[in-house]
């Protein structure tokens, strides 16, 4: 009989080789194409990072200008697509809407099904990066009953997203450049993270040669769960539920109790066993944004900081190497910007789209690529004979 390695959760299986992202979990390091995330978050911007992830190098000024033009040309969605949104209940979770609408893009761009054509792969990548913010903003507008706001290509990527989310036709809306910068940084910090669950989902879906828009929809579905991208929403809701610093010990005890399924959301990571470098940048950003908006003594931030402090001194969290992850502080920034918690994971999804599509492109272009097909250890019944229903 065949012998297989049994590795549930893929804790020790490499599914591919990749040149895109490097993580050293013990040192708390994250690089995109060799560049440390701290430098990119500080000095670069999201669209430049998109170029880097997609093509492997930082662009020249001319290449950057051309890339920006290519992306902005595709920010609008097909008018017909508005009907898709209208088919959803107003109270649908925006992630549900996103899965449906992005999956539907495979019908609008059916030519992209020809994944063997590098030009089709290229245009699909650009379309996804350009349209995801528009689709996420439309999901939000639809959920609050406001009219859709068309993209503005004179604004940069992050400012345009804020505009599409917060502008209303009746009132002038001006994007605060400092807030746009903070938004851009959130996008950058989420842009890629090697073979996490959603990226592996995109690769697995794509390994059969499926349409890229459909593959990205599969990635969005995977990201939604609270153990993955859904943790940012779950974390802020947890911080709100804790409410005051004096209730923290109660929640720490719950998280440690093996008979209680509760976990501290925004804590722990499969790979980072020292700290999550994204969380460090995010924490600084949270302080900056609250200062900028003049929000002092924010109770959620107070609870978050105190919870972090208590957990980092607690034997349980120390011995299991559980540290705040990227989702721990991002929600505080997004809440301060005015986003409801249901939009946190869609923002993660639109940021991660470039990572998914870069990984998908890398896989399709790799001559070694074969369909992903894990094996199993069968632990079911022995062979048995069918019994007629009257005899059971
Ligand atoms: N609170 C309390 N205990 C925890 C937590 C937590 N947040 N995370 C892990 N543990 C415990 C877990 O109970 C287990 O204990 P034991 O060894 O006694 O059974 C041990 O730590 C190892 O946990 P695991 O579930 O085997 O580790 P994993 O690598 O499979 O899971 C994780 C990683 C991120 C899913 C997990 O830490 C978790 O559920 N965290 C909360 C959700 C979260 O914040 N997710 C966001 C991840 S980062 C960004 C993203 O992907 O979106």
UniProtKB/TrEMBL annotation:
TM region positions: none
Organism: Paracoccus broussonetiae subsp. drimophilus
Gene that produces this protein: gltA
InterPro entries from the UniProt entry: Citrate_synth-like_lrg_a-sub, Citrate_synth-like_sm_a-sub, Citrate_synthase, Citrate_synthase_AS, Citrate_synthase_bac-typ, Citrate_synthase_sf, Citrate_synthase_typ-I
Chemical reaction(s) catalysed: oxaloacetate + acetyl-CoA + H2O = citrate + CoA + H(+)
Keywords: Acyltransferase, Transferase, Tricarboxylic acid cycle
PROSITE patterns in UniProt: CITRATE_SYNTHASE
Pathway: Carbohydrate metabolism; tricarboxylic acid cycle; isocitrate from oxaloacetate: step 1/2
Family statement: Belongs to the citrate synthase family.
PANTHER family in the cross-refs: CITRATE SYNTHASE (PTHR42871)
Name of the molecule in the record: Citrate synthase
GO molecular-function term, one example from the UniProt record: citrate synthase activity
């Amino acid at each position: 009989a065949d012998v297989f390695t049994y590795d549930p959760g893929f804790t020790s299986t490499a599914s591919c080789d990749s040149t895109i992202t490097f993580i050293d979990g013990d040192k708390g390091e994250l690089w995109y194409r060799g560049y440390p995330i701290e430098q990119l978050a500080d000095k670069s911007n999201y669209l430049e990072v998109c170029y880097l992830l997609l093509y492997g190098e930082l662009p020249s000024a001319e290449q950057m200008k051309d890339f920006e033009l290519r992306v902005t040309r595709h920010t609008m969605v097909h008018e017909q697509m508005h009907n898709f949104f209208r088919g959803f209940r107003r109270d649908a979770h925006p992630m549900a809407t996103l899965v449906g609408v992005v999956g539907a893009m495979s019908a609008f761009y059916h030519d992209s099904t020809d994944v063997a054509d590098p030009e089709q792969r290229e245009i699909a990548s650009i379309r996804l990066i350009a349209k995801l913010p528009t689709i996420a903003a439309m999901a939000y507008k639809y959920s609050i009953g406001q009219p859709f706001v068309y993209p503005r290509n004179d604004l940069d990527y992050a400012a345009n997203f804020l505009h599409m989310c917060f502008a209303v036709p009746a009132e002038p809306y001006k994007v605060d450049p400092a807030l746009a910068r903070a938004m851009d940084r959130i996008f950058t910090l989420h842009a890629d993270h090697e073979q996490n669950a959603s990226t592996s989902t995109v690769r697995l879906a794509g390994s059969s040669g499926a349409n890229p828009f459909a593959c990205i929809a599969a990635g969005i579905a995977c990201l939604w769960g609270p153990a993955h991208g859904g943790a940012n929403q779950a974390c802020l809701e947890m911080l709100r539920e804790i409410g005051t610093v004096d209730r923290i010990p109660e929640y720490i005890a719950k998280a440690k109790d093996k008979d209680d399924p509760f976990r501290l959301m925004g804590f722990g990571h499969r790979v980072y066993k020292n700290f999550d470098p994204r969380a460090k940048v995010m924490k600084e950003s949270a302080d900056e944004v609250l200062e900028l908006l003049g929000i002092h003594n924010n109770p959620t931030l107070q609870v978050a900081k105190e919870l972090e402090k208590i957990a980092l001194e607690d034997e349980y969290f120390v011995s299991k190497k559980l540290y705040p992850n990227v989702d721990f502080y991002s929600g505080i920034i997004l809440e301060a910007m005015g986003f409801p918690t249901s939009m946190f994971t869609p923002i993660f999804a639109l940021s991660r789209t470039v990572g998914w599509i870069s990984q998908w492109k890398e896989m399709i272009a790799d001559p070694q690529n074969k369909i992903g097909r894990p094996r199993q250890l069968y632990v079911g019944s022995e062979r048995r004979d069918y019994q007629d229903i009257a005899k059971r």
